[in-house]
Design a protein that fits this description.
The complex is a heterodimer of chains A (111) and B (114). Chain A is mostly beta strands and 111 residues long. Helices cover 0% and strands 53% of the residues of chain A. Chain A has no helices and 11 strands. In chain A, the strands form 2 sheets. In chain A, strands 2, 4, 5, 6, 9, 10 and 11 form a 7-stranded mixed β-sheet that branches. A 4-stranded antiparallel β-sheet of chain A has the order 1-3-8-7, with no helix packed on it. With 114 residues, chain B is mostly beta strands. In chain B, the strands form 2 sheets. In chain B, strands 2, 4, 5, 9, 10 and 11 form a 6-stranded mixed β-sheet that branches. In chain B, strand 6 and strand 7 form a beta hairpin. Chain B is globular, with a radius of gyration of 14 Å. The chains are: A mainly beta (111), B mainly beta (114). Chains A and B meet through strand 5 and strand 10 of A and strand 5 and strand 9 of B.
């Protein structure tokens, strides 16, 4: 059981470039989440998917898009990266919106 | 007022002491509460969940919930240097609009000194 996996682990982008962060879970969970974590700001929810086929905005959705590809996979896309999007990104999954299990994170730097 | 509040710390305790971490929440209807530990550079990992008033023990960890006072705490007995981390309190949303989400505190940094 791999749990929640994320790719890539590290990424450096230039302002205006685009990229997609990938997340997959093998726990058969219905719900998946994308967070960003910045010093002093805690975990902030970007988007979540309560179940396959649905996505909803979280606290800080601007500048991001998501796709729930199937029950296992939930991707986060930055269409035009900005320095303000430099952060650590975590994907998480849960069943019934309860205990969340996190992936190892992606450390993104936008120059 | 933030929905979930924690003292940011740092909380510093000597090795072998009891560390006490506190969290208050604003939504009286909340029913599910979680403590996560996050080491520097790592992802959050679940320590304990608690759903009923009272104490719940798991090894050196005890979670305490008081819904009337809207607080949840985490006690770490016989603290070890390996317990040095940031501890995050999370509360499951109570209403139909947010009951698929967790509301997070900013975390308390704990340092256990040898």
């Amino acid at each position: 059981n791999a749990g929640v996996t994320q790719t890539p682990k590290f990424q450096v982008l230039k302002t205006g470039q685009s990229m997609t962060l990938q997340c997959a879970q093998d726990m058969n969970h219905n719900s998946m989440y994308w967070y960003r974590q910045d010093p002093g700001m805690g975990l902030r929810l970007i988007y979540y998917s309560a179940s396959e086929g649905t996505t909803d905005k979280g606290e800080v959705p601007n500048g991001y898009n998501v796709s729930r590809l199937n029950k296992r996979e939930f991707s986060l896309r930055l269409e035009s990266a900005a320095p303000s999007q430099t952060s650590v990104y975590f994907c998480a999954s849960s069943d019934l919106g309860s205990t969340q299990y996190f992936g190892p994170g992606t450390r993104l730097t936008v120059l | 007022q933030k929905e979930v509040e924690q003292n940011s710390g740092p909380l510093s305790v000597p090795e072998g002491a009891i560390a006490s971490l506190n969290c208050t929440y604003s939504d009286r209807g909340s029913q599910s509460f979680f403590w996560y530990r996050q080491y520097s550079g790592k992802s959050p990992e679940l320590i304990m969940s608690i759903y009923s008033n009272g104490d719940k023990e798991d090894g050196r960890f005890t979670a305490q919930l008081n819904k009337a006072s809207q607080y949840v705490s985490l006690l770490i007995r016989d603290s070890q240097p390996s317990d040095s981390a940031t501890y995050l309190c999370a509360v499951k949303g109570a209403n139909a609009g947010n009951n698929r989400k967790l509301i997070w505190g900013l975390g308390t940094s704990l340092a256990v000194n040898p």
